[in-house]
Amino acid sequence: MPYHKRTATKLEDYRVMRKKGAALAKSVFTLTILTFLLTATLFAGADGIVEPENDFYNQHRDECVYLGRSFVNAKYNSVSIKNEPDAHDDIGIIKNGETVYLEYSCLFDGAYWGMSQYRYNGWVKIDQLLVLYDYVAFEEDHFDEFYEYNGAYDELRNAGAAIAWPWPGSGIPLFTIESIDTEHFKALHVYMDDAGREWGFVPYYYGNGNIWVCLNDPLNRDTLATNPAPQPAVWETETFHYDIALYKNVQKSKSSMLIIIIIMVAALVAGTAILIKVFWTPQKTKPGGKGDD
Questions:
Q1: Which CATH number describes the domain made up of 55-132+232-239?
Q2: Which of 16, 46, 156, 194 sits between 20 and 30 A of 220, alpha carbons compared?
Q3: How far apart are alpha carbons 79 and 98 in whole angstroms?
């Protein structure tokens, strides 16, 4: 084959290989993105619960229960925070009057310990603290008065926004939820106060969790504090509240999703091998090495 024809053939083969390479890269990229999205789904908690990086937690994960409540040191000059329960050295202290948010509780050696993830990433003995009144305490006090909401969120739809409250009658507005989409908004249960107002508990809505909304007067900031927070109280072990149920459901879904991710990773590897075989097979040289002249 003349030189110029052989050169043209090589250029054409080069173009074909580039196209095949681009197709291969695109296919591998698509499989990688799918795997990444599934992995992100696995580690994104439905209510924003993020598991801590803590050695004791990792070793006792099955014994830890999501807590998500604020406590105050109202009894001692200081309360020790430790890297793990019953550790000898302290990694920090909670001064008298200071509050701390505990994400998890764990029964260890006959005592309950709470983990503060964002302050010291350590553990504190819960019986040395008092728990602040919150949506969990309100739930415990009024659970028998809750009922299912059968309305259509008309007032909420008309207002287009709503003020979030820690619990009905608290008198403490938290923030305003803008541009509410009532198609995706759902109150888990409803409470009616003495004035006949219906309050809906929202465990999660677009990044906001464990809040109450007044369904028939959603933007009224002047709601009276008919149920102000009492003094901090001794914490009692919660056998059930909605955060715990949601956390357990998330854990179950993570186990199922892990299996799916393993399958997707295997598919990514197998798919890459198949694509290489299909799209990247080198051109075979005819016997003699030079081809036809």
A1: 2.30.30.40
A2: 46
A3: 10
pLDDT digits (tens, 9 = 90+) for 199-244: 999 999 988 889 999 999 999 998 888 999 999 999 988 655 544 4
Farthest CA pair distance, the chain: 99
DSSP strand E in 60-179: where? 64-72, 78-82, 90-95, 99-108, 111-116, 122-125, 130-131, 162-165, 175-177
Question: What are 77-102's pLDDT values in tens digits?
Answer: 999 999 999 899 999 999 999 999 99
- Whole-number Cα distances in Å, 106 to 50, 59, 77, 263: 16, 12, 24, 33
β-pair partners for 190: 147, 200
Residue closest to 73 by CA, chosen among 125, 8, 146: 125
Distance (Å, whole) CA 167 – CA 137: 9
The residue extents of the domains of the chain are 3-44+253-279, 55-132+232-239, 137-214
Query: Which residues are paired to 270 by β-bridges?
Result: none
Q: How far apart are CA 184 and CA 202, in angstroms?
A: 11
